[in-house]
Every structure is written in C-alpha cells, then in structure tokens.
Amino acid sequence: MYSYYNENTILYINGEFKKATAATTDLYGQSLHYGYAVFEGIRAYKTADGTVKIFKAKEHFDRFKRSCELIHMPYPFDNDELVAACYKVLEMNNMEEAYIRPLAFCPPNMTLKAASETHVLICAWEWGAYLGEKLLRVMTSSYQRPNPKAFKIESKTAGLYVNSILASQEAKENGYDEALLLDINGYVAEGPGANLFFEKDGKIFTPPPGNILPGITRATVIELCHELGIPLEEKLFTVDELKTADCVFYCGTAAEVVGWDSLDGHTFAKPWASSLGKVLQQAYKARVLEKEFDRAAVPVA
C-alpha cells in the first residue's frame, strides 16, 4: 500500500504545522459520517529555472472557497495565507515536486444541519501521474454522474467521489484501466477524476459545464488550444459519437494529460504520437514547468 506520510512528515492544520503522526480528528465529525467536506488537488513542480512553483494556486484556492460556499460550509480562511502554508509544507518536507491536498472539514455534529464551523488541513506527498503514462483502456460505466439538480456538481465535495470510486472500481474489475461516466441524459460527461477531450478532423471537442466538474486542468487545455490556434468546441455528444473520434484524452491535476488506447475495446483512428492530444500533452507539460513550447517539434499527421 502507498504510504502518504511517515514519522517525519509535516502538515498544516488550523494554522499550525504538526507532524502527521500527531494530528487527530474527531470520530463524530460531519465530514467523516456524511462526506460533508471539500478538497482540492494541486501540483507543485520544479520549474525550468530551478524554483518550485505551485501551478495555478490562486485558481485552486478560489475554487476551494467557492466549493465551500456552494454547500454552506463557513470559509473564514485567507487564501493568500493558505497558499503560503502550501509552500511552507513543501519546504518543511523537502519536496520540490508534489501533490498537495487541502481539505476543509467539519467538527462534531450528528445532525444534517449546515456546518457552523470549518477546519482546514493541508498535506502533500510525492505522486506520479495518477493514471500512469501508458494509453488508457476505458470502459463506459454503468454508473452515471449525479443529477445536477440533486447536487452542486461544480463543488469539489468529498462525498460526491463515492460515485467516482464505484465507477473506477467497476472498470478495473472488468479488466480496464479507467471508466467513462455519462450524464443523466446519456451524454458523455467525464471520468471518475478527470475531464475529457477528443479530436475529430483537426478540431478538439469537450463536454460543456453543467454535468461536469469544470476542472482547472481542463481550463488550461482550453487556454492552450486558443494559444496554439487549435479549434475547440464545447458540445454534448454520445458514446457512439466519441467512438468515431481520431483520438481521446483525459486531463486533471492528478492525471495531467493522458491519452486513450480504446473505449469498450474500440480503438481510435489516429496514433496518439501524431495526434493533437499529444501536442496538448506536451504543451501542458511545458506550461507547468515554465518552459518554452515548440509545437513544430511535435509531429501531427
């Protein structure tokens, strides 16, 4: 089992830096019992000039605050202070490249009333690309994304991720690498922890907001498309339409950008190495490392 901390690991909790082994939580907390918590996934990179940078820290903590507000969790925190705490956690743990996990959680309360108080935790660990480096064999899940009228889909709420666990586990039990979830109307939505893009006839497509978590990596890929002159459209589409794509990829902070090998055993027309997905994968890596990106160096058929 992967170890996220050891006896020397330092984390930040409620304004203090403590050893992870000394930090505690209450067994009667609403977050533990009801999934009433909010989290973020953020990455830090050692950039081209040798400095350690947290990628889009402001955007992540803006979403952290917004997620809490959407589910009525108080947010007494100063985001600049939380960003500074992230850098301090990296420094105290001697980390140059890491995955950072802020968590807003609630104190003891066995009722279903909105929280009157919120605690905050920031921890970090070294973590490679979540879905690995190889192309993914994906299956269409029997699980759907929750109805947006039943939940604040754009909130990165802990309890919502039980849906992701179920879908991902189903895929693995069936011999696949990851799942694809549809929305309640049968349109393609997203992965268990990643947004989706596909290429068709020289253009990139992605599902619109509404039934997805509008990811920060997703926003970065859209930015890169605009910068590189790659046509992009947000639209609804079905699994059958997705299977006609030239290539498909997932993206997210944990996964970064990772291409697909197949969907339900169906392979795609264009080799990943010559796809726009590959261009965007390399452009994304250059962006987070603050390197110059030469599109001409990436062959596209």
Automatic annotation (TrEMBL):
Organism, by scientific name, is Chitinophaga rhizophila
Q: What is its EC number?
A: 2.6.1.42
Report the function annotation for this chain.
Acts on leucine, isoleucine and valine.
What is the protein name given in its UniProt record? Branched-chain-amino-acid aminotransferase
* PANTHER family to which the protein is assigned, alphabetical: AMINO-ACID AMINOTRANSFERASE, AMINODEOXYCHORISMATE LYASE
Task: Provide the alphabetized UniProt keywords.
Answer: Amino-acid biosynthesis, Aminotransferase, Branched-chain amino acid biosynthesis, Pyridoxal phosphate, Transferase
N-terminal signal peptide: none
| Top EC class for this record | transferase
InterPro entries assigned: Aminotrans_IV, Aminotransferase-like, B_amino_transI, BCAT-like_C, BCAT-like_N, Class-IV_PLP-Dep_Aminotrnsfr
Recorded catalytic activity of this chain's protein: L-isoleucine + 2-oxoglutarate = (S)-3-methyl-2-oxopentanoate + L-glutamate; L-leucine + 2-oxoglutarate = 4-methyl-2-oxopentanoate + L-glutamate; L-valine + 2-oxoglutarate = 3-methyl-2-oxobutanoate + L-glutamate
